[in-house]
Design brief:
Length: 468
């Protein structure tokens, strides 16, 4: 299929956060393999993230607009990693000011895009697509359960805003959450605030998009994907994940690999005699533990008797002053042979995929969840914020493939209890078997004839039919 010759041109608009950009670039890679003409819209400081894709596909065009800024963001901030999760709303609102420049660019193109694929944080883009007369297709870097809950919240905000316990009885399995465990966007939303109204209206608009693409798969979320098809009134709800299995260029951050760290880690893992005996501990690219949390975690790991790899960030002097915790002096020596500490970046996907690793103590961010599923390791959940409590509910209550060992961004677990929970989970063969079954279902989904592969082929067909 050589669609680019037929003028099938698609504009890709990612949200500037690592966990959002990488999955959308993997999807973009798939479109490029089917010869679509692609333009990717970014601001200047996010351009380097595209390098692996641009190297593999030199035909990709970039559309670079200066970031319009926002009063609550420091000058120069263009990516969530530079400000933390509280930067989501102002970055969404700041990017919405690009509506005019995008319209002008579109109208100046001899061969303008026939569709816009945009990140679900950028729902205001749908209105722009409708004005241009092209389909707006929303790309969800999250799962169907989260999106079902967000849709319900934003459509009926008045009914939920003051509740301490929120029950979603209209959703399959009737999930319920205490208010503090709801997504951050719901908790931080300020009614009537112009920035937050852009966020809310964007989420509501997503439900009216031409199509929705999810980084999930049928065996994991069939009930919620089915629910969303009913809600949206059509079947253009595609699950194409785990996109990290479908793959794309440079998604494992190869440019960051420290050869010495790699060698030390994998030599250590190769020497582990028992398969599935090692616990991998990491909390994503943004979360820092407080001193009290780090101390509890360290004691818990010691008391558990389990072999482990702990990923700890390198802290700045300011972060130490602010009360964040680093691995105490002497800890590595005290657990020599049983535990390994990696300071800084770690090759997470490769570590999880090693035969010796059987568990992942994680904050339950969606990308980490999918990486664990693909590796066939059970998750020991410590959800903290954003969508993490919802993802933990899906795995613990709904799928029964995981356990919770702690919860809350500020919670300090009892170290003895934490050690016991780690020990029990790592000795639980039933959970390990369920994790392997889920991995097999994920692998099946992306094979020819699998549900994710078929949905991917269907999107390609839909887009290939579009004409200027």
């Amino acid at each position: 299929m050589s669609n680019s010759k037929n003028g099938v041109h698609v504009l890709i608009f990612p949200f500037p956060a690592q966990g959002h950009i990488l999955p959308l670039l993997d999807f973009t890679h798939q479109l490029l393999l089917h010869s679509f003409k692609i333009t990717i819209l970014v601001t200047p400081k996010n351009l380097p993230i595209l390098d692996p894709l641009l190297t593999t596909h030199p035909s990709v065009q970039t559309l670079v607009f200066p970031f319009p800024g926002h009063p609550s963001l420091p000058a120069g901030v263009e990516n969530v990693k530079d400000f933390g999760n509280s930067g989501n709303a102002p970055i969404i609102a700041g990017l919405s000011k690009l509506r005019g420049p995008i319209l002008e660019w579109f109208k100046a193109q001899p061969n303008p895009p026939v569709a816009i694929v945009y990140d679900f944080f950028l729902g205001w883009t749908l209105d722009l697509a409708q004005e241009l007369g092209v389909p707006g297709i929303v790309f969800y870097t999250s799962g169907g359960l989260l999106v079902s809950i967000l849709g319900e919240i934003w459509r009926n905000f008045g009914a939920y805003k003051d509740l301490g316990l929120i029950e979603f009885n209209g959703l399959p399995k009737s999930p319920r959450f205490v208010r503090e465990h709801m997504p951050s966007v719901f908790q931080k939303y300020k009614e009537g605030d112009p920035t937050w109204e852009i966020v809310r209206n964007g989420f509501i608009a997503n439900g009216k998009s031409f199509g929705s693409v999810f980084n999930t798969f049928e065996a994991l979320e069939s009930e919620y994907l089915g629910f969303l098809k009913k809600e949206m009134g059509h079947d253009r709800v595609y699950s194409i994940g785990p996109i990290n299995l479908v793959g794309g260029p440079g998604r494992n951050g190869k440019s960051n690999v420290d050869v010495d760290v790699n060698e030390r880690v994998f030599t250590w893992l190769d020497e582990c005699a028992d398969d599935g005996s090692v616990l991998y501990v990491a909390f994503g690219s943004q979360k820092l533990l407080t001193k009290a949390q780090m101390e509890a975690l360290i004691i818990g790991l010691e008391k558990s008797g389990v072999r482990f790899i702990l990923v700890a960030k390198q802290l700045t002097a300011q972060q130490l002053e602010e009360g964040y915790g680093s691995v105490p002096e002497g800890f590595e020596g005290s657990v020599l042979g049983r535990g390994l500490v990696i300071k800084g970046w770690a090759p997470q996907v490769e570590i999880l995929g090693h035969r010796a690793v059987g568990g992942f103590l994680s904050h339950c961010g969606w990308n980490s969840v999918l990486e664990a599923i693909v590796a066939g390791v059970q998750i020991l959940g410590w959800p903290m914020e954003a969508d993490q409590f919802i993802n933990a509910w899906l795995l613990v209550e709904n799928m029964k493939t995981s356990v919770r060992v702690c919860e809350g961004a500020d919670s300090v677990p009892d170290p003895i209890e934490l050690g016991r929970r780690i020990s029990d989970a790592m000795g639980n063969d039933l959970f390990k078997e369920r994790a392997k079954k889920l991995r097999d279902e994920a692998l099946e989904a992306v094979k020819i004839g699998g549900s994710s592969r078929e949905d991917l082929d269907e999107i390609v067909r839909e887009l290939a039919q579009l004409k200027c």
